[in-house]
Amino acid sequence: MNKYYAKTFQLVMKVAMGALPWKTPKVISGDNVFERLALTIKKNDEKHPFIVTGPNIFKRGMLDELLKVLDERGLNYTVFKDVSANPTDTEAMAGLTEYLDSGSDCFILFGGGSPMDLGKAVAALSVNQGKSVRNLQGLLKVRHKVPTIYAVPTTSGTGSETTIAAVITESATHHKASISDPKLMPSYAVLYPELTRGLPPKVTAQTGMDALCHAVESFTNAKYNTKLEDEYAVKAVKLIHDNILAAFEDGDNLDARECMQFAAFYAGRSFTRGCVGYVHAIGHTLSGLYGLDHGLAMAVILPKVLRKYGKDAEGKLAVLADACGMQGKSISQLAESFISWIEDTNEKMGIPTTFPEIKDEDIPQMVAWAMKEGNPVYPTPQLWNEKDFEELIHMLK
After folding, report:
1. Are strands 188-191 and 149-153 parallel, antiparallel or unpaired?
2. CB–CB of 69/35 below 8 Å?
3. Is the CA virtual torsion 378, 384, 388, 389 positive or negative?
4. What pLDDT is attached to residue 20?
């Protein structure tokens, strides 16, 4: 892709970003969060939330406390739990049918990134009836205001409780792409670390590194950000640096869990405007083709992409390293300290360094998908071509 075209596109995007109605979700945290959530729903004159969650969350009884409060407050509700790890357009259409049939008037998205992506997609479809998921994928294609979205994260990584994106996989092709529109940003985020207590260490590791990737990519991009998004990114990175291993090693450490929830929130709000980058562009191809967990892909790819950026990202990485108290006598050394910390943290949490699942015959498709997603939308430190993407993907094998 011509670099002048990309720069022009990104300049136009920056101007357009400034004209959009950005907001930050109102946070409900602390004591009695579900009681306060129910009161907020009633205050907003809503009577029937459509709860989107995952099957395992439902089986484990994680919804029970919320449902009890909704019952006590006289609120009807419908629970939709047919959500896979990588939600599909087929699931979104099934959710839309149930939403319309139930007479629901708002959404509670309860879970990790998958239920939140699926719920946002259903919300978008509900006000754009007659459209398919494919019709809505891309930027600013949700034409009408969606019902109120209340987001209750049960992991600390995706940041979906404060983002404008719904990532959906097309069942027929396994292609994963986003519906991205400010209308999909939740109005409220319920941060309740008790829900993350005892999460498997593997999930804590992968979701935490996903949040780190959001913050780092947003901060190193920086072209679309305001001071607010940069501050949120740095705050998120510092919280993750200080707490991820504590949360990983002790699932009952609620202080660390709460810090990781706020880190995911800040990182999500940062990349919502600042965008992600090539780590996500490549990672989405791995999730789509091989069903790999998104956070795992982010953790493995992030240090490799940062190293390939070289000097074009060093200044920003040095700022993050300094915020975390890392040592280095120069910008290059600080940047290297930061990348090495990511690699060391991955190793301590048992995260691999490669993906043997990658097949040579799939690489051209991966390159094509990554190019389509990343260029020219993501304002990355470098503009990569097909050869660059191919080289990086070969590093992952």
Report:
1. parallel
2. yes
3. positive
4. 87
Its pTM stands at 0.90
State phi, psi for 105 to the nearest 5 degrees: -130, 5
CA distance linking residue 163 with residue 271, whole number of Å: 8
The residues with which 191 forms a beta bridge, in sequence order, are: 29
SS3 73: coil
Query: By three-state DSSP, how is residue 50 classified?
Result: strand
Question: Do 163 and 153 touch, CB atoms closer than 8 A?
Answer: no
Of the candidates 204, 194, 196, 220, the one whose C-alpha atom is nearest the C-alpha of residue 302 is 220
In which residue are the tokens 């609620």 written?
254
Cα-to-chain-centroid distance, residue 30: 23
CB atoms inside a 10 Å sphere around CB 72: 11
Concatenated DSSP letters of 85-132: SS-BHHHHHHHHHHHHHHT--EEEEEESHHHHHHHHHHHHHHTSTT--
The closest alpha carbon to 234, from 338, 160, 304, 309, belongs to 338
pLDDT at 158: 86
DSSP structure string for 33-94: HHHHHHHHHHHTT---EEEE--HHHHHTTTTHHHHHHHHHTT---EEE----SS-BHHHHHH
Distance (Å, whole) CA 89 – CA 154: 23
In whole angstroms, give the CA distance from residue 135 to residue 78.
Answer: 27
What the block records as the tokens of 269 is: 């709000």
Retrieve residue 61's tokens: 């009884």
Q: Extract the tokens encoding 374.
A: 């990343």
Give residue 300's pLDDT: 98
Kindly tell me the burial class for residue 52, based on how many C-beta atoms sit within 10 Å of its own C-beta (0-12, 13-18, 19 or more): buried
CA distance 179 to 151: 17
Would you give the DSSP letter of residue 164?
S
* pLDDT mean by block of 10 residues, the chain; 397 residues: 87 90 94 97 98 95 97 97 93 97 98 94 95 92 96 93 92 88 96 91 96 98 92 98 97 95 96 95 93 94 98 98 96 98 98 96 97 94 97 97
The sign of the torsion formed by the CA atoms of 377, 378, 381, 383 equals: negative
